[in-house]
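Write out the bound-state structure for magnesium ion.
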Amino acid sequence: MLRDGRLVAFGTETVYGLGGIATSAETVARIFAAKNRPVFNPLISHFPTIEAALHEVIASPISQRLAEAFWPGPLTLILPRHADSRICDLACAGLASVAVRVPAHPVARALLQEVGLPVAAPSANPSGRVSPTSAAHVLAGLEGRIDAVLDMGDCPVGLESTVLDLTGAHPVILRPGAITNDALERVIGPFARREAVPSPEENDAVLRSPGLMSSHYAPSLPLRLNAQDCHENEALLAFGTPFPDAPLIWNLSASGDMVEAAARLYAGLHFLDKTGCAQGLEGIAVMKMSEHGLGQAIMDRLKRAAAPRTRHPGHDASESLT
Ligand code: TXA
Ligand code: MG
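---
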């Protein structure tokens, strides 16, 4: 189906992606339309091997080192596009750079190997909503808008890949993710670290990595971060020992384990949003957790989910595609 230019969602170790061949502008246009994603927000292309990924870009010694250290795995590298790259302009949103990644999930790699072409795969959720970590989440958001979903069970990592921009003089993290700052610095030494969440104004002005728009990953219920208690009309996203009086609870990790919390984050947001709305609750209280290591990426997503919802001109992809 992918080779025929159709849209197939599939699991990776991070989240489910909405796959389509990155070499066809028509297919990529249908990805944007299915997600209602603004066309200025470029897509990551996925490959089965390091060689296949680096073939599409102008690699550097640093990118080679990072690829060897972290691929296959949850790291996305932004690199200058090779002149002979087959990835279409629309997948890169017209930029001179391209995002590439080799996912670790063995089924995803086997699929990519079988397809034999770069596969563009943004997270398989409607634009601006919570990313999917199960086939059921994918269908809840996109049923009827995609051709198939390959059910690969729950995603083991549960948070999107770390996006590292290697096109400038120094590496810059555009999106914190499953590969932590410390892990990156062990391989390439100290480098610039982005502020966790830029202001909406800054976001709108810069749009360097448009997926960083502040209101992203948003459930429909509002989030209250670092809550010290849980109100009677709130669901609770707990970490450690939950507040006793919460009417609806999803515990990220009873033992306070960050890896478990990352893996359970999006499933928790999907669950509390759906069940909380059905029970007439009006918000989600989020207990405090560490911002170190994986906690940085978790808190990055929670802050975006809690940010005021912004609208962008041309946000409706069907509008901007016609
Ligand atoms: O874990 C992941 O990365 C998942 C799985 C499916 O691989 N994919 C994913 O894709 O999260 P998406 O489209 O939801 O996020 C891609 C991010 C966006 O923030 C986008 O703006 C950024 O990567 N990006 C892609 N190409 C870029 C480029 N050329 N320059 C800067 N940022 C880019
Ligand atoms: Mg996404």
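---
Residues 12, 14-15, 17, 41-44, 74, 76, 78, 92, 95, 97-99, 101, 103, 121-123, 160-161, 163, 174-175, 209-212 surround threonylcarbamoyladenylate (ligand 1) (CB under 6 Å).
The chain has two domains: 8-215, 223-306.
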